Fold each of these.
Amino acid sequence: MFLLCVNLGPAISLFLTLGITYIVGMANNGTGAGKGFHVFATHAANWVGTKWAFFVALLTIVVWLVSGPYFHYSDTWQLIINTGTTVITFLVVFLIQNTQNRDARAIHLKLDEIIKSIDQAHNEMIDIEHLSDEELQRLADKYQKYREECDVRSRRGKTQSDQG
């Protein structure tokens, strides 16, 4: 059991220590803790998505499985992997969600800029992600109606060209 605690404990501690140190360092440099967390979350989310992170996780599971007979498959042996994976999953979910929220916001802003720059575009579509569900449904219904009208015109055009 001590062997696994030594293997898992420092890895989690190092991850948390580096993250906290990085965030505090960014705050002390005058760039703000929010910016520090943004940078840390981006780097951590990018690293978690690499093949190396997968190999580290796989190696951890293999070491845990191989150590099972040594610890007689005890409750503590099972608790180590359950606790470790739960803590890491809990933290990574927030890191990835933070990154996805920023990416989605950036995409929405880029789309808003494209809509604004096109003369024929409906400027009412800018910033619609902040509308209520009912307002979004009304817009969806409106565009569904446009599409249906377009389909009808398209079918009429085909019918007329087939006859002509």
Amino acid sequence: MHSDSGDLGRLKPAPGAVKKDKRIGRGRGSGHGDTATKGHKGAQSRSGYTKPAWFEGGQMPIQRRIPKRGFHIARRTQFLEIKVSDLMRVTAESVGPAEFRAAGLISRNGPVVLLGNGEITKPVKIAVHRATKSAVEKVVAAGGSVEILQLAPADRRIKRGPKTRSKAGQKAKQAQRKTA
């Protein structure tokens, strides 16, 4: 505002503060004709172009600058974890995956691993798919035992090789089908 700000009814912007809108594409005489301020050629001069939100003006984008970290095994066996301290909540003398589900220690089907966290004082016979060395030592010290169950083929990580297309391979498959 300029110096004459005493009367609120006569307020107006300072001189030079308000400019006319840039009218593009209105002919050469407007100063913004021909390319309509878009420059020559390129995606930005075309109609309908919108640059992606992650576009950084051509410099290497952040998702490519930051290094990738970690490793993910595609078909890894996912074990449901039971701690040695959780065994105190089970009342039966012999327990397995079904009893763990009934007691609410695990929520779904799958292979179970026994971890050595916590302590156990009562003897329990346990059937799990895998157990750590410390967990086995603690259960045996309390007078119990640990039985290792076989993994079901659905639970086991299976390495799948290339399919054989040779005639010998096809004959072998046909022979397996006949015997099954």
Amino acid sequence: MNEENEEENEIEILPENFSKKPHFIFKVIVIGSSGVGKTCLTIRALKGEFNALLNPTIGFEFLTMKLKYKNKIIALQIWDTCGQEVFQSVISHFYKKASMAILVYSIADKKTFTDLNKWLEEIKNNADPDIKIALVGNKIDLQDNRDVTKEEALEFKEQHNLDLVFESSAKHGDNSRDIFFETTKMLYRDYIDKEMNSSKRSTLSIKNERIPSFSLKKNINKKRNFKRNNSKYSDIDDDLYMDHDENKYRSNCNC
């Protein structure tokens, strides 16, 4: 039984040509200053490849990562955005309906870390209010040039109430896939929790529905008096009068 549970909780990337329709689709945006390695990190996670000669992203690139988790097929629609100011008016459109923002900086460049405040403001102004945010310090292969400490990153996460934090290396592959694995798990759990809470609220609403403030006996007597005083309506079905809205009854009988 434990082996079955472990297998169900495992997460794996499916082949790009996997054609089965996903059970869930989540939109993920990867943002951060230019040159922090957003595209390299995404391609390393998806294809296990690294290309140091990649040209800077112009506008955005779109990739799909298909995963299997808890026996469900989950597709991450990954929008890899450029970090250049000139394209920001275009990129802001792609924040809409994103479930997760992966906010990337370089551990070897303090300016890309201080720029995070600007990117958080972009998220606040353009994304849905319940978007999840993961903080990623890339380029840990440049430890000798480290300009941002782990403690600074953790403090930033706590200060801004972010959801996940990682350090990674697109070049060596450290944590590149774990970022997207943990993103998938978080988004799946969040979706399930929302569905369960919605179901509970619906059930609670039914249980707490206010009973109409009228007495059944009082209304039956009222109906009988009405029939006695209006003999032409003596054959009206008793059920008609059970509606607590008296005006509704009167409109039905035209009296």
